[in-house]
Write a structure and sequence with these properties.
It is a single chain. The chain is α+β, with helices and mostly antiparallel strands. It has two domains: 10-117, Phosphorylase Kinase, domain 1, CATH 3.30.200; 124-332, Aminoglycoside phosphotransferase (APH), C-terminal lobe (Aminoglycoside 3'-phosphotransferase, Chain: A, domain 2, Alpha-Beta Complex), CATH 3.90.1200.10. The chain is 44% helix and 13% strand. The strands form three sheets. It has a five-stranded antiparallel β-sheet, with helices on both faces. Strand 8 (235-237) and strand 9 form a beta hairpin. It is globular, with a radius of gyration of 20 Å.
Amino acid sequence: MTASRKALTRTDLTPLARAALNRTPTAVTRIRGGSKKGVYRLAFEDRSTAVAYVWSPDEDLWDAGPGDPRDPFSHASGLTLFTTAANRLAAAGVRAPRLLHADPTHTHLPADAAIVEDLPGGTLEDLLNGAPAAVPKAEALEKMAALLDTLHACTGPRFGKVAVVDNGGSSYGGSCAEVVAERALSDLAELAAREPRVTAVHTQLADWLGALAAQVRPRTEPPALIHGELGGDHVRVTSDGELALIDIEGLMYFDVEWEHVFLRLRFGRHYDPLRTENLDPDRLRLYRAATHLSLVAGPLRLLDVGDFHDPEFMRGIAEHHLGEVLTLLKNAS
């Protein structure tokens, strides 16, 4: 279990800011939300701002350590993943915070760090929940649908993290569906060891996942570029009414159905404008089951570490998705 995170100070971040911008911040504020890196807004005397990203073990609530990038679902954290994803999105014409300075040498902090442009508008999630924004709700959703079209029109030669594939590497596993099914079974085994309601139906759940995976037919189309965890909280609405993706380290080439399962969960009643045709229903069924299992196992792992600021919220997520898993199993019987 990690100790409670200690926020970096203006003194800590001034050397990085001076190296990046040749300026000294007058104030530093931690931005809540990131669980894998520290995110800090730097304010300057002329009222301009920038954002510092710090990929330090002390900032990572998951306490997971470095992940193997050849696993598409390994811990998506680190400067290399960020810079590769930022370059790929720029090439695709999808906006993300512009990289202003990267420090992989730990010159100014004892961790990988970067300075990026600040996008101080709220998130798309804020807008959909009624917060004032530069564009109306309907227009923002139209822009989101267009962003998804642009993103998903980009494809890769193989599935996996952009940082692996764009450097000529390959990921573990024979297909997207195979990797998802294996991960779902791993999450299930973990949950069966700790949650009596899962233990009681472990065999039925394993058989059900196996049946879902068996229904997925091989795919000949290349994998699409996807964010991988694309809720409204990972989309910024800029002051000029445009959209920008944040928390992009998990960017990968994968089945687009994986993205749409997550979009549907996170956007809820606002998902309809984001729907697209030609999604594979068998993949959607498998990926929905796997996503619900992941959203039980993941929050429980985070709570094990013991440093999340709102544990009741995280328990609520796990409980909700456990209920979804058990309902899906019941309906499949």
